[in-house]
Specification:
alpha/beta, Alpha-D-Glucose-1,6-Bisphosphate, Chain A, domain 3, TATA-Binding Protein, 3 domains, 5-stranded mixed sheet, about 20% strand, binds 2-acetamido-2-deoxy-1-O-phosphono-alpha-D-glucopyranose, binds magnesium ion
């Protein structure tokens, strides 16, 4: 770093001192905290984004959001050139940068890192960072802090894309780096045209849902706002949007996280909605769950979570692959040996995993956090990943897409051949509809709707694919959640010593019992997940393991 660059950085960073006594970590999905303490962190992530852009010589994204967390929280994360999450190799630097005690340390850190990573840094190179934020009131001033961070690196340019869903920003970064058009209009165009394509390709006689409207809970956030705009250009789908943010508080008793964890109707929905097809987005619209209100059941819902969305997607993909694999009139088999895999986390309901395995699918597990699931799914020609909370997508390999392109344009004289052409066209449309960068509630919703219409299924038919095992999730406040160390995709606790044995002993008391704990990466809590054969058993198991967590790690413990 030359003297001029060093003094610009020193000067600007001295205006963003870190809050005293706060230690932040990049976590499951970027930095998150109460918005009032994030100015310095976001400024520094601006610097990081500029360095990442210089290093990769590509467009980088910076998103300001705290997703499903309280409206008073906020957060910041980076989208890499592919549109995916920041490379995990850079996370330790992100942590060090966020926690540098003053500007001198910060400049030294940047200098060392630039040298170690060989980042071109002569002030001649350019860097471009797309900025987005959700609807949180703190977003605007945090975005200004990010711009200041970016501008303190010579040659780096910040482009404010305004209020966006998280997946929109990731999509734009990916599109820009592929040399494609990348405005919000382009995003809506691509989604609506691929959705229409899938509807066009529906076999005759299957259409049952077209007249039947879908009611969406927008979590009072950006997803609701965007859907109101999108609805105007969207064909073949009757949408009613509630909790679109005009009134009501972001994520307060609304949204996918609330619906999935509490399993009750969100605000804005009533017993009169019983039987309707409903969906919930989270605060930044990267999660999607479906539900239907159970009649006369005290606000309880029938939840269709990420696991069941995954199952629906898997069935559709398998159907298309099986059509493509049929020999055309006994001719040579020119099918593509596509690998298909599904990726889940320990939060996946055990019944879903059994169901998927029963279908003959390869099911693998990773730790919580899309960065892990995405990486694993990318190992397959078609990788489908979902967290139970509704965050997920389908990745299709370049090799497969190339083959499908050829297959879809090959003229065919036989009916089987034309069926195969249609299957290829469907998979190509899926690859355009479903966000290849990150899980996306809007594109996921359209794919669900297209598949339900393709299958001719109601929400109830879909829900009956399998029955979830009763489950319960709890949060426990502890002295230091980093004292919990897990392995085996978070299913086994290795620290503190002895707690895993105690959890095992509790779990063994319950038929079909399964239970694990892990430190949250987005909140200052330890999470407990329990599953068992009855509702009561799942609740009891979760409660007794929560007590164990409190004994080992709580404020009355000796740790
Ligand atoms: C149990 C649960 O829902 N965990 C969520 C939550 O992470 P935690 O590390 O559990 O706080 O937020 C992440 C980011 O949205 C999401 O990827 C993850 O699935
Ligand atoms: Mg989210």
């Amino acid at each position: 770093m030359n003297e001029k660059q060093r003094s610009i950085l020193l000067d600007s960073s001295s205006r963003f001192p870190p809050p005293p006594g706060v230690k932040l970590s990049y976590g499951t999905s970027g930095f998150r905290a109460d918005a009032s303490i994030l100015q310095s962190t976001v400024f520094r992530v601006g610097i990081l984004a500029a360095l990442r852009s210089l290093k990769t010589q590509s467009v980088i994204g910076l998103m300001i959001t705290a997703s499903h967390n309280d409206v008073s929280d906020n957060g910041v994360k980076i989208a890499d050139p592919s549109g995916g999450m920041l490379s995990q190799a850079w996370e330790p630097f992100a942590d060090a940068l966020a926690n540098a005690p003053d500007s001198l340390h910060l400049v030294q850190l940047v200098d060392d890192f630039v040298r170690k990573e060989n980042i071109p840094f002569e002030g001649l190179e350019s860097a471009e960072i797309l900025l987005g934020r959700d609807t949180r009131p703190s977003g605007e001033s945090l975005l200004e802090a990010a711009k200041k961070g970016i501008n303190s690196i010579v040659g780096a340019v910040a482009v404010d894309m305004g209020v966006l869903t998280t997946p929109q920003l990731h999509w734009m970064v990916r599109a820009r780096n592929k040399g494609m058009k990348a405005t919000e209009l382009d995003y809506f165009d691509q989604l609506s045209s691929s959705f229409s394509k899938l509807i066009d390709l529906i076999p005759h006689g299957n259409i049952v849902n077209t007249m039947d409207k879908l009611i969406v809970d927008g979590a009072n956030g950006v997803g609701g706002e965007k859907l109101v705009v999108f609805k105007k250009v969207l064909q073949f789908l009757d949408l009613e949007i509630r909790n679109s943010g005009k009134e009501g508080v972001l994520n307060e008793e609304v949204g996918a996280d609330y619906v999935q964890k509490e399993k009750v109707v969100p605000r804005g929905f009533a017993p009169a909605d019983a039987g309707m097809r409903c969906a919930s987005l989270d605060g930044d619209a990267d999660r999607l769950v479906y539900f239907s209100v159970i009649p006369n059941a005290d606000n309880r819902i029938c939840l269709i979570d990420g696991d069941k969305i995954l199952s629906l997607f898997a069935l559709f993909i398998m159907e298309q692959l099986s059509i493509l694999n049929q020999n055309e009139c006994g001719g040579e088999n020119n099918s593509y040996p596509a690998t298909l895999g599904v990726v889940q986390t320990a939060y996946a309901n055990g019944a879903s995993t059994d169901y998927l395995k029963h279908l003959g699918l390869e099911v693998v597990f990773t730790p919580t956090g899309v960065k892990y699931l995405h990486e694993k799914a990318a190992e397959y020609d078609i990788g489908i990943y979902f967290e139970a909370n509704g965050h997920g997508t389908i990745l299709l390999s370049e090799g497969l897409l190339h083959w499908l392109d050829g297959r879809s344009s090959k003229p065919s004289l036989t009916s089987k051949g034309s069926e195969q052409q249609k299957a290829a066209l469907r998979l190509l449309a899926v690859s355009k509809l479903i966000n290849q960068a990150v899980g996306d509630a809007l594109s996921g919703l359209l794919l669900v709707e297209a598949i339900l219409q393709h299958m001719g299924w109601s929400i109830h038919r879909w829900s009956e694919l399998y029955h979830d095992l009763p489950s319960r999730q709890l949060k426990v406040k502890v002295v230091d959640r980093s004292a919990v160390v897990t392995e085996n995709a978070e299913t086994v606790v290795v620290r503190p010593l002895g707690i895993q044995e105690a959890i095992n002993a509790e779990t063994a008391k319950y038929p079909q019992g399964r239970c694990f704990i892990r430190p949250s990466g987005t909140e200052d809590v330890v999470r407990v997940y329990a599953e068992a054969s009855t509702e009561e058993a799942a609740v009891n198991l979760a409660n007794s393991v929560a007590r164990l967590v409190d004994q080992f790690l709580g404020f009355g413990s000796s740790s």
